[in-house]
Specification:
mainly alpha; extended
Length: about 280
Amino acid sequence: MSEKLKQFEQKLDQKLTAAEMYANRPRKWWLYLIIVLILTLLVTWSGSSIQFDGLTVTGSQVAKGVISGVTHPDLKLMFGTGDTDVPFLLLQTMAIAVLGTLIGAILAIPFAFLASSNIMPAPIAYLFRIIILLIRTIPSLVWALMWIRVTGPGASCGVITQSVCSIGMIAKMYITAIEDLDTRILESLDAMGCTPFQKIRYGVIPQLTASFISTTIYRFDINLKDATTLGIVGAGGIGASLVQCLNSRRWAMVGSFVWGLMFLVLVIEFLSTRIRKKLARGE
Protein backbone atom coordinates (compact mmCIF):
# COMPACT_ATOMS: atom_id res chain seq x y z
CA MET A 1 0.00 0.00 0.00
CA SER A 2 2.84 2.38 0.77
CA GLU A 3 4.31 1.94 -2.71
CA LYS A 4 0.95 2.63 -4.35
CA LEU A 5 0.56 5.70 -2.15
CA LYS A 6 3.99 6.95 -3.21
CA GLN A 7 3.15 6.40 -6.89
CA PHE A 8 -0.13 8.27 -6.42
CA GLU A 9 1.68 11.18 -4.74
CA GLN A 10 4.24 11.31 -7.57
CA LYS A 11 1.50 11.42 -10.19
CA LEU A 12 -0.29 14.14 -8.20
CA ASP A 13 2.92 16.18 -8.00
CA GLN A 14 3.43 15.82 -11.76
CA LYS A 15 -0.11 17.02 -12.40
CA LEU A 16 0.36 19.98 -10.07
CA THR A 17 3.67 20.85 -11.76
CA ALA A 18 2.05 20.72 -15.19
CA ALA A 19 -0.82 22.90 -13.96
CA GLU A 20 1.62 25.43 -12.50
CA MET A 21 3.64 25.51 -15.73
CA TYR A 22 0.46 26.10 -17.73
CA ALA A 23 -0.65 28.86 -15.35
CA ASN A 24 2.78 30.52 -15.60
CA ARG A 25 2.99 30.24 -19.40
CA PRO A 26 4.14 33.40 -21.20
CA ARG A 27 1.27 35.66 -22.18
CA LYS A 28 1.84 36.57 -25.83
CA TRP A 29 -1.66 37.54 -26.83
CA TRP A 30 -0.39 40.92 -28.03
CA LEU A 31 2.09 39.17 -30.36
CA TYR A 32 -0.65 36.96 -31.78
CA LEU A 33 -2.86 40.01 -32.22
CA ILE A 34 -0.14 41.81 -34.19
CA ILE A 35 0.38 38.76 -36.42
CA VAL A 36 -3.38 38.53 -37.11
CA LEU A 37 -3.51 42.26 -37.93
CA ILE A 38 -0.54 41.97 -40.30
CA LEU A 39 -2.10 38.97 -42.07
CA THR A 40 -5.43 40.83 -42.33
CA LEU A 41 -3.73 43.85 -43.87
CA LEU A 42 -1.82 41.65 -46.34
CA VAL A 43 -4.98 39.82 -47.41
CA THR A 44 -6.90 43.12 -47.77
CA TRP A 45 -4.11 44.72 -49.77
CA SER A 46 -3.70 41.65 -52.01
CA GLY A 47 -7.44 41.40 -52.63
CA SER A 48 -7.68 45.06 -53.65
CA SER A 49 -5.02 44.50 -56.34
CA ILE A 50 -6.81 41.56 -58.00
CA GLN A 51 -9.86 42.00 -60.18
CA PHE A 52 -11.85 38.96 -61.23
CA ASP A 53 -14.18 39.58 -64.16
CA GLY A 54 -15.46 36.04 -64.39
CA LEU A 55 -14.70 33.34 -66.92
CA THR A 56 -14.51 34.30 -70.59
CA VAL A 57 -16.41 32.37 -73.22
CA THR A 58 -13.16 30.88 -74.51
CA GLY A 59 -12.06 29.94 -70.98
CA SER A 60 -15.28 28.09 -70.23
CA GLN A 61 -15.00 26.21 -73.53
CA VAL A 62 -11.43 25.18 -72.70
CA ALA A 63 -12.51 24.01 -69.24
CA LYS A 64 -15.33 21.95 -70.74
CA GLY A 65 -12.94 20.55 -73.34
CA VAL A 66 -10.37 19.49 -70.74
CA ILE A 67 -13.03 17.80 -68.61
CA SER A 68 -14.37 16.04 -71.70
CA GLY A 69 -10.85 14.90 -72.63
CA VAL A 70 -10.14 13.56 -69.15
CA THR A 71 -13.40 11.60 -69.07
CA HIS A 72 -12.99 10.39 -72.69
CA PRO A 73 -9.24 9.97 -73.33
CA ASP A 74 -7.73 8.67 -76.55
CA LEU A 75 -7.00 5.05 -75.59
CA LYS A 76 -4.99 4.39 -78.75
CA LEU A 77 -2.62 7.21 -77.86
CA MET A 78 -2.52 6.18 -74.20
CA PHE A 79 -1.44 2.58 -74.87
CA GLY A 80 0.41 3.02 -78.16
CA THR A 81 4.06 2.12 -78.76
CA GLY A 82 5.09 4.90 -81.15
CA ASP A 83 7.46 7.76 -80.36
CA THR A 84 4.53 10.18 -80.17
CA ASP A 85 2.40 8.05 -77.84
CA VAL A 86 2.01 8.49 -74.10
CA PRO A 87 4.24 5.59 -72.88
CA PHE A 88 7.25 6.73 -74.94
CA LEU A 89 6.86 10.38 -73.90
CA LEU A 90 6.47 9.39 -70.25
CA LEU A 91 9.66 7.31 -70.43
CA GLN A 92 11.46 10.25 -72.01
CA THR A 93 10.19 12.57 -69.28
CA MET A 94 11.32 10.13 -66.58
CA ALA A 95 14.71 9.70 -68.29
CA ILE A 96 15.22 13.47 -68.24
CA ALA A 97 14.37 13.57 -64.53
CA VAL A 98 16.63 10.61 -63.69
CA LEU A 99 19.67 11.94 -65.56
CA GLY A 100 19.15 15.50 -64.35
CA THR A 101 18.83 14.37 -60.74
CA LEU A 102 21.86 12.04 -60.80
CA ILE A 103 24.15 14.56 -62.49
CA GLY A 104 22.98 17.33 -60.17
CA ALA A 105 23.39 15.15 -57.07
CA ILE A 106 26.95 14.18 -58.04
CA LEU A 107 27.96 17.76 -58.85
CA ALA A 108 26.36 18.99 -55.61
CA ILE A 109 28.72 16.90 -53.43
CA PRO A 110 31.90 19.00 -53.97
CA PHE A 111 29.85 22.21 -53.74
CA ALA A 112 28.38 21.07 -50.42
CA PHE A 113 31.73 20.13 -48.88
CA LEU A 114 33.34 23.36 -50.07
CA ALA A 115 30.42 25.38 -48.64
CA SER A 116 30.38 23.67 -45.22
CA SER A 117 31.72 25.95 -42.50
CA ASN A 118 32.79 23.06 -40.26
CA ILE A 119 35.14 21.73 -42.95
CA MET A 120 36.36 24.72 -45.00
CA PRO A 121 37.56 28.15 -43.89
CA ALA A 122 34.82 30.74 -43.55
CA PRO A 123 35.72 32.86 -46.65
CA ILE A 124 35.71 29.82 -48.97
CA ALA A 125 32.50 28.47 -47.43
CA TYR A 126 30.72 31.82 -47.85
CA LEU A 127 31.92 32.12 -51.46
CA PHE A 128 30.49 28.75 -52.44
CA ARG A 129 27.28 29.43 -50.52
CA ILE A 130 26.83 32.58 -52.59
CA ILE A 131 27.35 30.54 -55.78
CA ILE A 132 24.74 28.00 -54.64
CA LEU A 133 22.35 30.82 -53.76
CA LEU A 134 22.79 32.39 -57.19
CA ILE A 135 21.98 29.06 -58.84
CA ARG A 136 18.82 28.71 -56.72
CA THR A 137 17.55 32.22 -57.42
CA ILE A 138 17.06 31.59 -61.16
CA PRO A 139 13.84 29.62 -61.91
CA SER A 140 14.07 26.43 -63.93
CA LEU A 141 12.11 27.91 -66.85
CA VAL A 142 14.65 30.74 -67.16
CA TRP A 143 17.51 28.22 -67.10
CA ALA A 144 15.71 26.24 -69.83
CA LEU A 145 15.26 29.33 -71.99
CA MET A 146 18.99 30.05 -71.67
CA TRP A 147 20.20 26.51 -72.33
CA ILE A 148 17.84 25.98 -75.24
CA ARG A 149 19.86 28.62 -77.11
CA VAL A 150 22.95 26.48 -76.53
CA THR A 151 21.72 22.93 -77.15
CA GLY A 152 18.61 23.60 -79.20
CA PRO A 153 15.17 22.11 -78.45
CA GLY A 154 15.16 18.55 -77.16
CA ALA A 155 15.72 16.30 -74.18
CA SER A 156 19.38 17.34 -73.78
CA CYS A 157 18.27 20.86 -72.82
CA GLY A 158 15.98 19.38 -70.15
CA VAL A 159 18.77 17.25 -68.69
CA ILE A 160 21.22 20.16 -68.47
CA THR A 161 18.56 22.47 -67.00
CA GLN A 162 17.54 19.98 -64.32
CA SER A 163 21.17 19.20 -63.49
CA VAL A 164 21.94 22.86 -62.85
CA CYS A 165 18.73 23.46 -60.90
CA SER A 166 19.30 20.34 -58.81
CA ILE A 167 22.74 21.54 -57.71
CA GLY A 168 21.23 24.51 -55.88
CA MET A 169 18.67 22.63 -53.80
CA ILE A 170 20.57 19.37 -53.25
CA ALA A 171 23.78 21.17 -52.23
CA LYS A 172 21.82 23.20 -49.66
CA MET A 173 20.41 20.01 -48.12
CA TYR A 174 23.81 18.33 -48.25
CA ILE A 175 25.38 21.24 -46.36
CA THR A 176 22.88 20.80 -43.53
CA ALA A 177 23.72 17.08 -43.29
CA ILE A 178 27.48 17.73 -43.35
CA GLU A 179 27.30 20.39 -40.64
CA ASP A 180 25.28 18.01 -38.43
CA LEU A 181 28.04 15.38 -38.50
CA ASP A 182 28.93 13.82 -35.15
CA THR A 183 32.55 14.95 -34.80
CA ARG A 184 33.10 12.67 -31.80
CA ILE A 185 33.25 9.70 -34.14
CA LEU A 186 35.95 11.40 -36.19
CA GLU A 187 37.89 12.26 -33.02
CA SER A 188 37.69 8.61 -31.91
CA LEU A 189 38.95 7.40 -35.28
CA ASP A 190 41.72 10.00 -35.17
CA ALA A 191 42.76 8.76 -31.71
CA MET A 192 42.93 5.23 -33.10
CA GLY A 193 45.43 6.39 -35.71
CA CYS A 194 43.14 6.09 -38.75
CA THR A 195 44.17 7.67 -42.02
CA PRO A 196 42.04 10.47 -43.58
CA PHE A 197 40.64 7.97 -46.09
CA GLN A 198 39.64 5.61 -43.27
CA LYS A 199 38.00 8.46 -41.36
CA ILE A 200 35.96 9.36 -44.43
CA ARG A 201 35.15 5.70 -45.13
CA TYR A 202 34.07 4.75 -41.59
CA GLY A 203 33.21 8.08 -39.98
CA VAL A 204 31.74 10.37 -42.64
CA ILE A 205 30.13 8.23 -45.34
CA PRO A 206 27.94 6.12 -42.96
CA GLN A 207 26.52 9.30 -41.43
CA LEU A 208 25.76 10.98 -44.75
CA THR A 209 24.61 8.14 -46.99
CA ALA A 210 20.98 7.94 -45.82
CA SER A 211 20.54 11.72 -45.84
CA PHE A 212 22.12 12.11 -49.28
CA ILE A 213 19.98 9.35 -50.82
CA SER A 214 16.79 10.71 -49.24
CA THR A 215 17.54 14.21 -50.53
CA THR A 216 18.27 12.89 -54.02
CA ILE A 217 14.99 10.95 -54.12
CA TYR A 218 13.07 14.02 -52.95
CA ARG A 219 14.68 16.12 -55.68
CA PHE A 220 13.78 13.43 -58.23
CA ASP A 221 10.11 13.88 -57.30
CA ILE A 222 10.43 17.59 -58.02
CA ASN A 223 12.35 17.07 -61.25
CA LEU A 224 9.76 14.61 -62.53
CA LYS A 225 7.07 17.28 -62.28
CA ASP A 226 9.38 20.00 -63.59
CA ALA A 227 10.26 17.88 -66.64
CA THR A 228 6.68 18.28 -67.81
CA THR A 229 6.82 22.05 -67.38
CA LEU A 230 10.17 22.30 -69.15
CA GLY A 231 8.71 20.47 -72.12
CA ILE A 232 6.43 23.48 -72.66
CA VAL A 233 9.43 25.61 -73.70
CA GLY A 234 10.87 22.85 -75.88
CA ALA A 235 13.11 21.01 -73.41
CA GLY A 236 11.81 17.55 -74.29
CA GLY A 237 9.38 15.28 -72.53
CA ILE A 238 5.62 15.10 -72.60
CA GLY A 239 5.05 18.81 -71.97
CA ALA A 240 5.61 19.88 -75.59
CA SER A 241 3.05 17.41 -76.94
CA LEU A 242 0.60 18.39 -74.22
CA VAL A 243 0.82 22.08 -75.12
CA GLN A 244 0.42 21.35 -78.83
CA CYS A 245 -2.73 19.36 -78.14
CA LEU A 246 -4.08 22.13 -75.91
CA ASN A 247 -3.43 24.77 -78.57
CA SER A 248 -5.09 22.67 -81.26
CA ARG A 249 -7.93 21.72 -78.88
CA ARG A 250 -7.55 17.98 -79.28
CA TRP A 251 -9.12 17.25 -75.93
CA ALA A 252 -9.09 13.45 -76.12
CA MET A 253 -5.31 13.54 -76.61
CA VAL A 254 -5.01 16.02 -73.75
CA GLY A 255 -6.91 13.61 -71.52
CA SER A 256 -4.54 10.78 -72.45
CA PHE A 257 -1.49 12.85 -71.52
CA VAL A 258 -3.09 13.96 -68.24
CA TRP A 259 -3.95 10.39 -67.22
CA GLY A 260 -0.46 9.21 -68.10
CA LEU A 261 1.15 11.97 -66.03
CA MET A 262 -1.08 11.27 -63.04
CA PHE A 263 -0.29 7.55 -63.17
CA LEU A 264 3.46 8.16 -63.42
CA VAL A 265 3.53 10.72 -60.60
CA LEU A 266 1.46 8.50 -58.28
CA VAL A 267 3.70 5.47 -58.86
CA ILE A 268 6.91 7.46 -58.33
CA GLU A 269 5.45 9.16 -55.25
CA PHE A 270 4.51 5.81 -53.70
CA LEU A 271 7.90 4.25 -54.37
CA SER A 272 9.92 7.27 -53.23
CA THR A 273 7.90 7.58 -50.01
CA ARG A 274 8.54 3.92 -49.19
CA ILE A 275 12.28 4.30 -49.85
CA ARG A 276 12.57 7.47 -47.75
CA LYS A 277 10.76 5.80 -44.84
CA LYS A 278 13.06 2.82 -45.10
CA LEU A 279 16.11 5.07 -44.98
CA ALA A 280 14.81 7.29 -42.18
CA ARG A 281 13.17 4.76 -39.85
CA GLY A 282 14.07 1.36 -41.23
CA GLU A 283 10.42 0.52 -41.88
